Amino acid sequence: MGNEPNTAPQPWETSRYPRLVLNLGRALLQVGSPAHRMETAMQIMADRLHLQAEFFCTPTALFVTLSDGDRQQTYLARVEPGATDLCRLSDLSDVMENLASGALDPNEADRQVRAIMARPPAYGKLVTVLAYVMISAGACGLIGGGLRESALAAVLGGITGLSVTLLWQASEFSRLLNPLSATLVTFFGTLWCGFDAHTALTPAVIAGMIALIPGMNLTASARELATGHQVSGAARLATTLIVFALLTVGLALGGWLAQMITGPLDARAVSELPLWAIPAGLVASTFGFVILFQARWRDWGWIGLACILAWSCSRLAGATGSPLLGAFAGALIVGLSGNLFARWTGRPGSILHLPALILLVPGSIGMKSLSALLGQDVVAGVEGAFLAGTVAVALATGLILASALVPPRTSL
Fold first, then answer.
1. pLDDT number for residue 342
2. Computed from CA positions of residues 21, 22, 26, 29, in that sequence, does the dihedral angle turn out positive or negative?
3. CA-CA distance, 303 to 92, in Å (whole number)?
């Protein structure tokens, strides 16, 4: 008996942590946490739990290595990218904090993580469609549209919201969501303008699909690349470019189909925009994104304040004639306010970061660039693409500086 080999399982095999770590990491990726935040947050939690762990993630996968000092085991969690959900992100952050402080044992923490991810969204489909309407109507004035264009954008935003809610559940069509939605928006927008000679098409169509434009992903990829997460940043950048291209294909197809009915559209001047429409559009688009990002009611005031500060600072800095300075200043204010919020409340700074940043991201610039290239205006298209890229870098720089000046208490 004394010569039998020792078959006792190693500590990393009997640990209760691997399943919890994988489920928690998978959940964080599904609610929209980027690599630079996720890896840092997971590492902090592992250190507090006295785990020897290393993490590496991409937008669709998480690799975790756990070690007992002598041996190590690597795990892989495959993830389907999900939509940003600030309510779930906040609850997952609470689980991590309670686990690290000892208030939760690993089994209970794992049960709570699975329960958080299994519950239905905070807002139903009808409210979500209304959010798309608010975003499109509000954003149209912010990107240069007038009152007529804003009215059309509201209708097109509703079409976008309906197409998203209907196609997202159909697995065979979900991967065609972007081009199909862009086709529908452009088709009905072109029909509208074909019978209304006083409405400009371009700002209304871009605002109508603005919730689909991956400007936030472009900014996130720039930040990931700047912070040393090259694989995740490059993958996110490639995905962003493909989404831009798919939206452009839908834009071209929808316009071509509609103009078979209306005939070619002439260039039209944008209608007038009353002074009250700018603040009204800012409020509407802000709270539209709050609903779309599934934020809690108690956070609406904080998010609204952060959005107003970001927009105001961006406009003041942009008055110098440099959109890069405006983007940098707006991102710096967003980063500082979110990090201070995280320090004071112990909740994720992303609750303020994401809705406020969405008003500053260069998605509409990138969409105009691709539209210009599609119209064979190469110079304007290249200039727009370069501006979109540099604005994304300026936003990432502002966020990085904010984290250096006021490090957040939590990394989510």
1. 85
2. positive
3. 19
Q: Is 58 left (phi over 0), alpha (psi -120 to 50) or beta?
A: beta
SS3 per residue for the chain = CCCCCCCCCCHHHHCCHHHHHHHHHHHHHHCCCCHHHHHHHHHHHHHHCCCEEEEEEECCEEEEEEECCCCEEEEEEECCCCCCCHHHHHHHHHHHHHHHHCCCCHHHHHHHHHHHHHCCCCCCHHHHHHHHHHHHHHHHHHCCCCHHHHHHHHHHHHHHHHHHHHHCCCHHHHCCHHHHHHHHHHHHHHHHHHHCCCCCHHHHHHHHCHHHCCHHHHHHHHHHHHCCCHHHHHHHHHHHHHHHHHHHHHHHHHHHHHHHHHCCCCCCCCCCCCCCHHHHHHHHHHHHHHHHCCCCHHHHHHHHHHHHHHHHHHHHHHCCCCHHHHHHHHHHHHHHHHHHHHHHHCCCCHHHHHHHHCCCCCHHHHHHHHHHHHCCCHHHHHHHHHHHHHHHHHHHHHHHHHHHHCCCCCCC
Task: List pLDDT tens digits, range 315-358.
Answer: 777 677 677 888 888 889 888 988 888 888 878 888 888 888 88
Q: What is the mean pLDDT of the chain?
A: 82
What are 77's two structure tokens? Answer: 């969690």
Q: Are 228 and 40 in contact (CB under 8 A)?
A: no
Q: Indicate if the pLDDT at residue 212 is higher than 60.
A: yes
Nearest to 351 by CA among 360, 366, 361, 340: 340
Q: Within 13 Å, how many C-alpha atoms sit on residue 201's CB side?
A: 24
Asked whether the beta carbons of 184 and 209 are under 8 A apart, the reply is no
First vs last C-alpha separation in the chain: 52
Amino acid identity at 321: G
Read off the tokens for 410: 């939590």
pLDDT, mean of residues 56-75: 83
The alpha carbon of 333 is separated from its chain's Cα centroid by a whole number of angstroms, namely 18
Q: Is the pLDDT at 2 greater than 80, yes or no? A: no
Q: Are 348 and 38 in contact (CB under 8 A)?
A: no
Q: Which two structure tokens, joined as six digits, stand for 243?
A: 């989404």
The single-letter code of the amino acid at 146 is: G
